[in-house]
Amino acid sequence: MYFAHDTEVALVAAAALVNTMTNDVDELAEPPALGRFLDEHAYTGRRDGTTAELTAVRGLRAELWELWRTGDAAVLVARVNELLERTGARPQLVRHDGWDWHLHVTDPAAPLVDRMGAEAAMALVDVVRGDDLHRLRTCAADGCRAVLVDLSRNSSRRYCDTGNCANRTHVAAYRARRRDEATARPVVRRAGRAPQPGLTARSEP
């Protein structure tokens, strides 16, 4: 498996967007929070900073959540094609800000939700073409609904980056093994000391 760098960046950003609302806390509760998210993931181009823009991005977030969990390539293809058409995707090669040649999928002046949606859709195109749908996962930790993209060479990643899920799961497994070992360990009972030869046990007065 090999994804181009911009594909990996787009997949990681898409997963991060989904994870802003996976454990019942909305991390995009107001426009400034969206601005911080965009800065963190180096989104360029137009930003309106309005409630309407935030609402549109939240809608995209819900759509990506469904795409991540579908597990059905045919369904994913249909939804990705629809997203590419809706966002007016027009791939073009660009180079800027220290980045070598990579794809921009829409005009920088296009609405933010269209640019984010088109970039996510183009990255998912590569996932489908490479038969890598299995790399779109949900976190294996109990009680966590976050998603992740497994970019490891041996396809071994199971836990998200939203919390301490991997360490928490390993600690819980370790404690469970210790409990099982303690339960299975035989109980050794000490017998009472036998009287020494030649001695008669005293009786109490």
Give a description of the structure.
- By secondary structure, this protein is mainly alpha-helical.
- The protein has a single domain (5-168), classed as Orthogonal Bundle (Jann2411-like fold), CATH 1.10.3300.
- The protein contains 6 helices and 4 strands.
- It has a two-stranded antiparallel sheet with strand order 1-2. A two-stranded antiparallel ribbon has the order 3-4.
- It starts with a helix and ends in a 21-residue tail after the last helix.
Outline of the structure:
This protein has helices spanning 5-18, 31-40, 51-69, 73-86, 112-129, 165-184, and strands spanning 92-94, 102-104, 136-138, 147-149.
Identify the notable features of this structure and list them briefly.
single chain, 205 residues, mainly alpha, Jann2411-like fold, two-stranded antiparallel ribbon, two-stranded antiparallel sheet, 6 helices, 4 strands, 46% helix, disordered C terminus
Topology:
Blueprint: H1 5-18, H2 31-40, H3 51-69, H4 73-86, E1 92-94, E2 102-104, H5 112-129, E3 136-138, E4 147-149, H6 165-184
Antiparallel strand pairs: 1-2, 3-4
